[in-house]
Amino acid sequence: MSPLPPLLLLAVLAQDIWIRENPDGTLTFTDSPPARSGYTVLLREKPLPAPSAVSLRSFPALNDYDTVIAGASLQYGVPAPLIKAVALAESGMNPRAVSPAGAQGLMQLMPGTARELAVVDPFDPTQAIDGGARYLARQLNEFGSTELALAAYNAGPGAVKRHNGIPPIPETQEYVVKVMALYNHFRGQQDAGSGAP
């Protein structure tokens, strides 16, 4: 892909850009939330948090769902620090979060995915964490790799299968790196006995 022209780059820096891979392999970009499915956010308005920015001051609800996360971890075999990392990256631990694409709640489940997972209220933290943990468990079982499971959570399992790995979508590639960093951060806290899941 060639570098973006300067004026397009300025537009990219000012707002979200959406991307869709077409069946013929070409890419379609748009600056408004698409009405049809298949698009993912190329650039977000807010960057994913780095471990150094994770604190109760930055995220007051950071530890509010640790008990629910621990229960989902035990039930579905997904490491609690991974569930927490995904929740923080997806919603900033805001159970009322809604993305421009329509993803909802703490784990940012799309309405179709929520229905498939029998999540009646994606804004209910317990239901969202349960559904998100089950979806993560499915991706971990399917791909056998935390990085690929995260790519599937972000871009969809079909994209991971089509590319036989992490899709060449900058937003997805950044997502995997940042969530892995958060996962390792929370795992380090757990190992240190800080009480984080």
Molecular shape: globular
Could you describe the largest sheet, including whether it forms a barrel?
A: 3 strands, antiparallel
CATH topology of the largest domain: Lysozyme
The structural domain count equals 2
Task: Output the structural class.
Answer: mainly alpha
Question: Number of helical segments?
Answer: 8
What share of the residues does DSSP label as strand, in percent? 5-15%
The side-by-side strand order for the widest beta sheet comes to: 2-1-3
The separation of the N and C termini measures 40 Å
Summarize the structure.
By secondary structure, this protein is mostly helical.
What does this structure look like?
This protein is mainly alpha-helical. The chain folds into two domains: 1-43, no CATH class; 47-191, Lysozyme. The protein contains eight helices and three strands. It has helices spanning 6-14, 66-76, 80-91, 111-116, 125-143, 146-155, 157-163, 170-191; strands at 17-21, 27-30, 40-43. Strands 2-1-3 form a three-stranded antiparallel β-sheet, covered by helices on one side. Helix 3 (80-91) crosses helix 8 and helix 6 (146-155) crosses helix 8. The protein is globular. Residues 1-15 and 41-45 have low confidence and may be disordered.
Summarize this structure as a short list of keywords or feature phrases.
disordered N terminus; mainly alpha; Lysozyme
What's the layout of helices and strands?
Blueprint: H1 6-14, E1 17-21, E2 27-30, E3 40-43, H2 66-76, H3 80-91, H4 111-116, H5 125-143, H6 146-155, H7 157-163, H8 170-191
Antiparallel strand pairs: 1-2, 1-3
